[in-house]
Amino acid sequence: MRLALIRRPTPALWLLALFASLAALWAGRGFAVTVLSAVALAVLLWPLQRRVQAVLRVRVLAAVLVLGVATAASLGLATLAATQLSAIGQRLPDALRLAARDVDRLDGMGAATVQRTRSALAELDRTVARVTGTPPSRPAAVAAPASGSLVASAVERSAEGMLHVGRAGFALVLQAGVIVMLAFFLLCSGDRLAHGLSRWVDGRPLARGRFSPLVSALAREVRRYGAVTLVTNVLIGLAVAAGAAAFGVTSPGSWGLLAATLHLVPYAGLAATMAVLGLEVYVLHGSAGLALLSAAFVALVGLVVGSALATWLQGRASRIDSALMFAGTVFFAVLWGGWGLVLGPLMVVMVHAGMQHLRAPALAAAAVEALPEPPAVGVPALTGSGHS
Fold first, then answer.
1. DSSP class per residue in 276-302
2. Nearest CA among 308, 321, 349, 351 for reference residue 225
3. Residue 176: its pLDDT value, please?
4. Which of 99, 182, 363, 374 is the most exposed place for a label (fewest CB within 10 A)?
5. Domain boundaries in the chain?
6. End-to-end CA distance of the chain
7. Contact in structure between 340 and 334 (CB atoms under 8 Å)
């Protein structure tokens, strides 16, 4: 009776467990993100660490070398991205001057249209006030005293945004340091920890022999996800580099590396690439049409490679539906914010692999446990290899 209750929980218990899990993931998102990132990094680097260890014969030294190379590569990409974005920031005054020129050109072409639009809006406001019996709204210049120009307000908000980004970047660096340290300890002794957990969990009656294959399946899915991400980011980098060269941008290879790095954050990174490349083309050629065309090109690359191809490859590798992958990414983005965009697809892959792996073995194990014990018969044991 007790085993039946454990194997068949009521829907209320399932619902309660679901809400408790969601609350735990949201409340402990900092801890969950750090641990999950460290585990994923250790799993991705584990095959390379084993090869280096076979040469150096010292596990700690191999872990330091592999993790040091990965950290140096990450820092190099981050430095390149920061340098490229800083150079774009220095071009912002030129972009503002070009924007002022383009707005000034609208003075003759669109002044009449703007004036007629304002008159129509004022007439609509008076009509609504007469119908509703409320006084018409005061002009903007009277209702709200001027507290600064629009450009000055935009610059002030940009400065506040940069300060916020700096604080977030400092917190991200600290969290990345914790992730690297935890990944180092996992590379040094993660296999012994996994074996210990396997012996303890596999010894339980309801989980006999299921934990070790589950860990292997999850590790395999994480490596597949890493391979798909690497392939798609490389393709995006190559496509953006080719597009930047076509638009006459200097150092198109740097733009390709920037696009590949920013696409680690799937959707926000693509939007940032569109904005900075469009700004560069705008300053270089002084044409808003070419700037919009370059941004549209990046959006097309992200749609074809970053969304369609990546989702198809991940679905083929892990047998996951594209809609499920997108919905899971959005769910974890709502739950964890920016980290959810990065780790959401990985979480979907791991949950799907775990459910697929545990479903059939659980049914098979239940069927085996329900079989009666075979009767003892007096057949002598067959030993040796020469029997017939």
1. HHHHHHHHHH--HHHHHHHHHHHHHHI
2. 349
3. 84
4. 374
5. 28-103+160-366
6. 46
7. yes
